[in-house]
Amino acid sequence: MSSAPDSGIIIGLGHAERRDDGAGPYVARALEERGLPAVVHQGEGSGLLDLWAFRPACIVIDAISGAEAPGRLRVFTGHDDPAFQRAGFVHSTHRLGLPEAVALGRALGRMPERLVVVGIAGAAFGFGATLSPPVAAAAERLIDVLTRAEDAFDADLLVGLSRF
Asked: Could you tell me the domains of the chain?
């Protein structure tokens, strides 16, 4: 894994012991095992700024809750989009969640050149380390797409996933 600031990075955001909130870490660990530049972030949203600042590209994978069918993937490339702000990123264990980290990063000039956020709609957020079946299937699909991609940081590649 290259953690050099001049390379892209994939960040799996969430807590592996909170069921579907562990979707991001699950994907990041699998991608790291396959040699992609991926890390897990379980802390405050403000810590994302140190991980993604000044990089050419960043993909953040996080669980979302709300009206989406469990396992549905939502890809966000426009962070001013009201849908991104309302997506229901699960951050009950974070004081500063993903949308707030994006706003803070912009205000402080600590953003990657290109940020793509992949939300995986969850169904179960209680205690436990097992992903629900639809979330596990979506995570495996995302791992497969990113592993097979010639360029995992190609935003068009990921935008096509939103239709599932």
From this structure: 9-159 (3.40.50.1450)
Percent of the chain as helix, strand, coil, to the nearest 5: 35, 20, 45
Enumerate the β-bridge partners of residue 89: 64
Which tokens is 29 given? 């660990």
Report pTM: 0.88
Token output for 156: 């068009």
Q: Residue 140, Cα to own-chain centre: how many angstroms?
A: 14
Q: What is the largest CA-CA distance in the chain?
A: 39
Backbone angles phi, psi at 98, to 5 degrees: -60, -50
User: For 74-133, how does the pLDDT look when each residue is reduced to its tens digit (9 = 90+)?
Assistant: 888 877 777 776 666 765 445 678 888 898 999 999 999 999 999 999 988 889 889 999
CA distance 9 to 5: 9
Distance CA 45, CA 43 (A): 6
